[in-house]
Amino acid sequence: MQLHDPALLKTQCYINGQWVNADNGAVLSVINPANGDNLADVPRMGKAEAERAVAAAHAALKPWQSKSAKERSNLLRRWFELMMQHQEDLGMILTSEQGKPLAEAKGEIAYGASYLEWYAEEAKRIYGDTIPAPAYDKRIMVLKQPIGVCAAITPWNFPNAMITRKIAPALAAGCTFVIRPASQTPLSALAIAELAQRAGIPAGVVNVVTGSSSEIGKVLTEDDRVKKFSFTGSTEVGRKLIAQCAGTVKKVSMELGGNAPFIVFNDADIDAAVEGAMISKFRNAGQTCVCANRLYVQSAVYDQFVTKLAQAIAKLKIGNGLEQGVTVGPLIDTSAVNKVKEHITDAVGKGAEIVTGGTADHHGELFFQPTLLKNVTQQMKVAREETFGPLAPVFRFETEEEVINWANDTEFGLASYFYSRDIGRIVRVSENLDYGMVAINTGLLSNEAAPFGGVKQSGLGREGSKYGIEDYLEIKYVLLAGINQ
Ligand SMILES: NC(=O)C1=CN([C@@H]2O[C@H](COP(=O)(O)OP(=O)(O)OC[C@H]3O[C@@H](n4cnc5c(N)ncnc54)[C@H](OP(=O)(O)O)[C@@H]3O)[C@@H](O)[C@H]2O)C=CC1
Ligand SMILES: O=C(O)CCCC(=O)O
Questions:
Q1: How many angstroms does the Cα of residue 126 sit away from the middle of ligand 1?
Q2: Per the UniProt entry, what are the Gene Ontology biological process annotations, in alphabetical order (predicted)?
Q3: Residue 275 catalytic?
């Protein structure tokens, strides 16, 4: 990997300000999904190292909390600046281990860094309250205090931004952190830690431990010194981790699976809807939890939408994300490819038609052609399960009531999208969609200023925005009596 600053490619973990190997020297290989190359080996740590990371975060807590909000803010700001300064290299590392096109990877670095910038600012705005007391000689004060040591397990699909989105509000609030990144994408996490060190964030405040998900996960969810646990990943694993956190009654944040409806009404601007569908569906080769999973298009514009979407898909360029002009990279692994295949086979078996794509791509075993299916129905697997791949299934609907029922007929409730120019419908549909996020006339809703999160089995809590920091704060009620003596 050709980096301007080769020292960003770290192959050791970061605990208590030290770069360290696994106690037993074990490693796990990081593979480039585009070509199978072994990029690096990183430590395969377990229980003992995870406990040491928690101990380091615990020891660093008081001194970190004792810094002024402005000092913490300045350190976060410095970290943000370093991330932007090294955007090119961080993008290169990200594309190499994850597969997304370099332009998208650099976009993720800027997106990830934006959380550091945002919470550098919010650190100074953690306001308490005073409340009129029911008795004349009493005063009620409300303090917001850091919750304590926090820990997170993050996924491979956004190896940078899913870390900064959690760690930035935590550090701003005065908490310390242990991160356990996905096994497929640890290099981005370690590079983030390198920049934290360069920014001057004190030892123990940020710790990164790579290795066994079950062993490290058990420590992070069960150790009583960890007061808050945050996870982004599948609903299935999220459920297990919530249960593990129950033993110590930890506060949890969960960003879990989605099954986003993308609805196009007859009155929509169809070209805009196609453009939005392309971004929402094919960003990161369809591997985001907010990707359009079900495209519902009203009868009168159905054929026009399908034709235009097929034309837009034909312009996508598949390949290694480091190659110029590539817009769709490989999927993360074979099980991701198999899931796409399974959804296509199921749909076609039940009457759907392939308009374009539908098969593996010649670039390699993890590449799959962007695929468009029409005549898709609620009886097919794609209606229920998150595909997490480059498959756009287009359903036909007749009425607003019908499409809202279908859109809400899922245990998930993360992102939803719709296109309409009718103001009454825009208000009605926004209010009736059972989702944590609703995007109208756009296919991209993520940014640091907005509260990202889901309802139903898509998760708990919000990340980003002024709301995101609340998850890392405790409210303390202070009652002062005897004022008049
Ligand atoms: N909400 C989202 O953003 C994401 C949703 N998904 C959904 O999940 C599906 C499967 O993807 P997958 O990567 O397997 O997602 P997982 O939920 O399995 O992985 C997410 C993270 O959890 C870790 N993990 C897995 N099992 C455990 C465990 N028992 N204890 C502690 N940590 C654990 C993983 O580690 P390791 O890397 O070592 O496996 C990874 O760091 C996708 O197809 C997609 O539908 C996936 C990723 C992100
Ligand atoms: O897919 C995810 O894990 C959520 C991140 C996507 C985003 O922030 O837009």
A1: 32
A2: gamma-aminobutyric acid catabolic process
A3: no
Per-residue pLDDT of 81-131, as tens digits, reads: 999 999 999 999 999 999 999 999 999 999 999 999 999 999 999 999 999
Residue 288 CB less than 6 A away from ligand 2:
yes
**CA 363 – ligand 1 centroid, Å:** 26
The answer to whether 248 and 149 have CB atoms below 8 angstroms apart is no
Domain count, the chain: 2
Q: Does residue 177 lie in a domain region?
A: yes
Across the chain, which distance is largest between two alpha carbons, in Å? Answer: 84
Return the CATH number at 405.
3.40.309.10
Distance CA 342, CA 340 (A): 5
pLDDT tens digits, 43-89 = 999 999 999 999 999 999 999 999 999 999 999 999 999 999 999 99
State both tokens at 49.
């190292």
Surface-to-core class of residue 50, CB atoms within 10 Å of its CB (0-12 exposed, 13-18 middle, 19+ buried): buried
Say whether both 321 and 249 belong to one domain: no
254 ligand 2 Cβ < 6 A: no
Residues 216 and 125 in one domain: yes
Query: Does residue 117 fall inside a structural domain?
Result: yes
Residue 324 CB contacts under 8 Å (≥ 6 apart), including other chains:
none
Task: Flag whether 451 is in a domain.
Answer: no
Residues in contact with 37: Cβ distance below 8 Å, sequence separation at least 6, in sequence order: 31
**Position 484 in a domain:** no
Could you read off the pLDDT of 187-235 as tens digits, one per residue?
999 999 999 999 999 999 999 999 999 999 999 999 999 999 999 999 9
Range of the domain at 313: 261-440
